[in-house]
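Hi everyone,

Forwarding the result from last night's run.
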Amino acid sequence: MKILEILTNNCRTPDRQIGKKVGLSGVAVKSRITKMIKSGIIQNFTIKMEPPSLGYGVIYLVVPSDDEVGIVKKLKLIGEPFFVVPCLGDITACGIVVEKDLEQKTELVKNLIRDARIILTLNPNYFELVLADLTKTDFKILGQLLKNPREKIDNIAKSTRLSTKTVTRTIEKFEAHPSIQFTIIYDPKKLGKFIAFALLAMIQNDTRKVLKEIEAEFGEYFWQVPFTANKMLVLFMYSDNIYNADIMHHKIKHTEGIAFTEVFFPKKIEMPTDWLTDTIKNAFRSDKLHVPINQII
């Protein structure tokens, strides 16, 4: 489980470095990762990039339905799916990437999906996530990483005809930015004795203070780095059974400063990257080395 946790937070972490953290050799770590891929626990490696970092708006919503195909079909009438996660209880958590007119498209969501509940909307260029001053070189490397986020630097340099120094510097910049995560798509149904869940909390006051308090008590159960935006906090956690997960939810729910909580137990996770692929293609059409945000959407 610890190996999965490390890969979820940064799948580019070298096997040897993972081994030092979990008390195994790099060869043993590589063997376990291979087994998790073959068994379907790890479905693929990917890049999770927050849309506002590239000038897009995003709509987060919950739909009381497990009709994944029907939901995606409607989402595509509005924008591009960012994530689609069917959960226990016949509900589906979704994110939609939109280019313009965020308010208008939010209303369109409500009209197209009558029972949809809007959790949060983030405007393009949300200040905490913006990736400033990206170059065509950055997008070229990003395109290679999207094909294989674990690709070795030497191979990326060869494919892009760039120096290893340039590739290394760019990847370090990506890894340091909060809007980019080299991660995995895993199958929640194949985690064995563990249960993964997401806990959404709406915060009344200081989000960082609330998160710090929660982390002090429950940090060892964090599956990946929490997501915060405005007054919303999302905790990605795991437990050994549903009852202990419920106990954690109950305790977090009564943390001072929390107004509302909701818990989601995923059955499947989809994170389409079509919107990001299109963005990379648009960046190459720019006649500038430093690509302005308004030229990639």
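The radius of gyration is 19 Å.

Cheers,
N.
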